[in-house]
Structure formats: structure tokens, C-alpha cells
Amino acid sequence: MNDYHVLSLEAPGGPATDHGVALRAEDVPWVSKQLWAPDAATKNGNYYLYFPARDKEGIFRIGVAVSDSPSGPFKPEPEPIKGSYSIDPASFVDDDGSAYLYFGGIWGGQLQCWRADGTFDPSQSGPHEPSGAGVPALLPRVARLRDDMLEFDSPPQELLLLDESTGKPLAADDHDRRFFEAAWMHKYQGKYYFSYSTGDTHYLVYATGDSPLGPFTYQGRILEPVLGWTTHHSIAEFKGKWYLFYHDCSLSGGVDHLRSVKMREIFYDAEGRIKLTPE
Prior knowledge:
Elements: E1 3-9, E2 16-24, E3 39-43, E4 46-54, E5 60-67, E6 75-76, E7 90-93, E8 99-103, E9 141-144, E10 157-158, E11 161-162, E12 181-188, E13 191-197, E14 204-209, E15 216-223, E16 233-238, E17 241-248, E18 260-268, E19 274-275
Parallel strand pairs: 11-15
Antiparallel strand pairs: 1-2, 3-4, 4-5, 5-6, 7-8, 8-9, 9-10, 12-13, 13-14, 14-15, 16-17, 17-18, 18-19
């Protein structure tokens, strides 16, 4: 994408108001091309837009832009967040005011290119990931944000995703459950819910935990595959009800890069499991 627009709703289902361009790639000094999926948070009376883009060397970094309005325009910081990499940032501000940024995406998102020593291996670009019996899957990342929301307060760390039966990390070959991209965090009745896309198998799934830093235990699927390659989403409370926001390609007849926003109400059962229909 070359720019971002902000849409707003007064009520579920619309109509939606397009507030125009919130941020352009050409206005961010460090960006070479390709603004990808962003997220936003509010704190300290300001609004913070977190966005991934390629730097001048073609490596994905995460930037932040600030506005005093949720509709923008947003003014970008001149450099990406120090220590950031990969794609799909998702911001989360907890009840105590502490803030976190979740991120990561394999294949095109370059997460698999980063070695343990912090160096970037371009030979792993493209559809590469670990595989083999007993090999754990790559994990999303999380970093605590400083109070000003502009930098990491601590280095990014892996967010552990565990099998609900064995307690072991999800396996790399388990493409129906392993993390691919589209991190999201929300909190419901004191429990933390980390949801994400499985990418090439097109499921939207979730795991739960007792801390925003994990570990998280896999719980199941939220959404079956939609028309389109992947399912990027968010989950938020709006006017006393919980909603799943996501996209598909139904309006474009399956043209993968022409995606439309959808929303639907979600529900929780007595054990806190996410349901698409009330019980």
C-alpha cells in the first residue's frame, strides 16, 4: 500500500465514514516501499499508529506515527522503532497502563530471516520456515513499550504458544495451528487472548494465557477459511458487545489483493471460549 485511510462507524454494520489519508509512505523518511497491515493505540491523550514497511535495504521494520485525533493525520517518527523487524504490529494497552507491541510474520514477513544473534539472513526470504518431526514452530514476538509509546522498553521476546494437551510448543509441521502472521491481543474477564492467522491453511485461531507476555495455550479456531489468501483481524468491544473485524475478497470476486472489511459479533461461553453463535 502507498497510504492508510481511517474508517469510522457510529453503529455496527455502518455506514462507514472514510476520513481520508492518515499517512503516506512518501512522508516517512526511512521507508522505501510497501506499507503493510498497521494497528493503532491510544494513551497519554494521543493516538499512535504502528506500521510495517520496507526500509532502504528492503528489510521490514516497524514505525510509529502520532496524532491527536484517531482519524489522523499522523506524523511519523523519522526512524523505525529501534530493534523492530518483520510485520503485522498489534498494540495492546493493559488495564494498568502498561503497553505492548506484538508482531511477526513468516514467509513474506521475513520473521524466518532473523537469526538468534540478531542478524538478517536474506537467503531465507520467501516461503521458508522450519520443518521436520519434533521441530518447534517459529513464534510471534512481543516487546513492552516505553511510556511514551515511541520505543521498546525491553528487547523483543518470543511469545510461547503451547499445545493444550501436551504443554509443549506447537510444532512447525502443524500448519493448522502454528503461527504465521496477523497477531492480535485482547483481554476478556481478566484473561489474555492471543489470536493469529495460520496463513497457508487460512484459519483464524487463538490461545489464552494469564500474562500479556505469555505463555499462551492453544484453544481452537475462531473463523474457518474465507475467500482470500489470509485472514487478518482484530477483536474489540464496541457499545457493550464484542466484535470480530476481518477481511475477505468476496466483493472483488476473489481478487486476492482487493480486500474488504467485515465485522461480526462474537460470544464467549461459560469457560471463556470464543463462539460465533450464542449458546
